[in-house]
Structure formats: C-alpha cells, structure tokens
Write the structure tokens for this entry.
Amino acid sequence: MRAIQLNAYGPVENYQLVDVPAPEAGPGQVRIKVQYAGMRWGDVMHRNGRIRDMPPLPVIAGLEVAGEIDQVGEDVTGLKVGDKVVTMVPSGGFAEYAVMPALNLKPLDPSVQLDRMLAYFLNMVVAYFLVYRWAKVREGETVLLHAATGGVGLLALQILKRRFENVRVIGICSSAEKADLLRVNGCDHIVDRTTQDYVEEVNRICGPKTGGFAAGGQQGGGVDVALNGVAGSTIETDKQVVRKRGRWVIFGFQGGESMPAIDTASICYDGITIMPFSINAWFGQPEMAEAEAFTREWLEGEELNDVASWPLEQVAEASRAMEAGETSGKVVIKIGGAA
Ligand SMILES: NC(=O)c1ccc[n+]([C@@H]2O[C@H](COP(=O)([O-])OP(=O)(O)OC[C@H]3O[C@@H](n4cnc5c(N)ncnc54)[C@H](OP(=O)(O)O)[C@@H]3O)[C@@H](O)[C@H]2O)c1
C-alpha cells in the first residue's frame, strides 16, 4: 500500500512516500480502507518531535482516518465489512489501510460524507468543550479567539456567532483572505497578526484593561474570555487583555515549541481563571456524549464548511502550508475514492 512515512523529526522533507505491506487486522481489531485522512496541528507537532509517547521512527504518520472497514479481526462484534467509520489513530493514518482496535468504534450512517465527517468529528467536539464546558461563555460577553480560521478556531467562531445572540468575537488571523473568511462568518472584529498588534486592537475595541492592585475592584476594558491555542509570546500579551475575573483558556501551543510556564505574578490581583484544556481529560466522560450529540445535531442542521483536500503525495506540502499559517479550516488528505 502507499503510505507517508516520517523518517526523522524536523522539516517536511522528512516525510517520504513509501510502498509497504498493508497491515492485517488482529484479534479485536478492524482494518479500515482509508478514503480520507485528517491533518491537524498535532501532525505538525508530531513531525517536529513535540508529542510525547509516540511510536519510534520511522513511522507511518497521520492521526485521523475515515473510510470503510474491509477486514474484521476475531472477537469483534458490532462492526462489519463495508461499515463507514471515522476515528483517531495513534499513527498510520496517511496510508491506504489502517488498523484500529474495534472497541469504541461505531459505524456511521452510510450516507455520511467522510471528508466532512473528518472536519467535524474531533474539532467540533473540542470547540464545544472550549465554548460551553470550559469557558462557559455567556450572552453579552466578548471573546478573543486566536487562530480563528483554523480547524478548531473556525468552528468555535461559528458556535459563538450562530448559537448565541449577543456574544462579541475578536478573531485573530494572518491574511486578508482569512479576514474575509472571518467576516462572512460574522466575526465582529478582525485582527491580522502580521500587520496589527492585537493588544492595541483589543484596547481600542474594549477599552484598556484595568488591572493590578491599584485598580481595586474596578471593572473596565479587556475581554471576558480568551480562547488561546497558540501560547508562545501570547502567554505574556494575553495577560494584558483578559479582564479582571476573566477566563483564559489555553489549549495548544502553535506559537512555540512547548507549553510555556505561566508566571502569575503579573496578574495575581486580576483574579483571572487560567484554564488549561485537553480533550484527553474527557474521553469516557458523560460530557463527551453531550459533545458528540451536539456535533451530530450540528452536522444535520447547520450550513457546513467546504472541505478542501490534498492528495496523499502532497502531505508534506499540506503540512508546510499548515505550519506556515496558509491553511484555513480543516485540512484533509484524500487517499481512496470519494465516499
Ligand atoms: N487541547 C486539545 O485537546 C486540543 C485538541 C485539538 C486541537 N488542539 C489545539 O488546537 C489548536 C488548533 O488546532 P488545529 O488542528 O485546528 O490547527 P489549526 O488552527 O488549523 O492550525 C493552523 C493555524 O495555526 C495558526 N498558527 C500557526 N503558527 C502560529 C503562530 N506561530 N502563531 C499564531 N498562530 C499560529 C495559524 O493561524 P493564523 O495564521 O490564521 O493566525 C494557522 O492557520 C492547536 O494548538 C492544537 O494543538 C488542542
């Protein structure tokens, strides 16, 4: 089978298109004939050696697949050849076949569009948790959204603008084209991080934040919530714009090599709630079923985003583009036929 192998951590040239034997489904496993693989920021992190506990190199890269089951191992119940599935995989997603434990896999409705499913099945669950469960955004609030056109960011924006009547979103992006995408999705204020200083912009929009001891309990300026999957230098700058008693959700580090430590000394009088988030904390919890139900309902009732896909041979180019901030929405790799 054709697959994309990661030979060493580092630049995209370390991806190689290889021809290797297809894996076989062992006991308790199914084999998926992959039609689309999802690319997320986690793939960029994997390529750069920034994820702990990954299989040793060389390894077939790719962390999400959607396709049809074409082999069912012993002791598997509830799944059959031909069932459509979408799932995260620990590795091996950028390949024509992937093997996965059958446990927790559920067959999808046969009519489902698999590339669309890939765009929503994880990112919408994450966006749901960020907005409803973690930040607990309320009507009347202002939300600062970093990487607002990203795979997770665009869905978070859409929830905030379609499911709330009066939430103001300040979305950060990096090009005029992305700014247009934010505008058509109802983003109230748009900041291009390549040409504008977002702290200045938030100060202009919300008024300067009243912070520190001298301000007493006085209210004023700043955003109620920041949804930050970027970290890096924004760990310092966000402190200047999250208002007293605001919520600061941190769920990724696109802007740095690792999650930086947060020195709270400069904001200790601001009473900000700092909220690290990982979806890993929620697997198997009742709230996950709520998030999945929300996603299903969204897929059935909402206008959905177009999904642009790249061929398997262009995984390296897609990864370069994602890392350079050139992609919008979900990045999907087309591997098998359309389904
Ligand atoms: N905690 C969890 O459970 C969980 C789950 C899923 C994803 N995540 C995190 O959520 C974030 C979004 O993931 P995704 O897969 O949807 O990726 P994504 O946002 O689609 O990634 C691409 C975007 O990242 C932004 N970016 C890249 N480098 C940047 C930099 N140096 N500074 C600021 N922005 C930069 C760019 O946005 P602009 O150029 O437009 O600004 C780019 O378009 C990632 O940090 C990911 O690790 C966390």
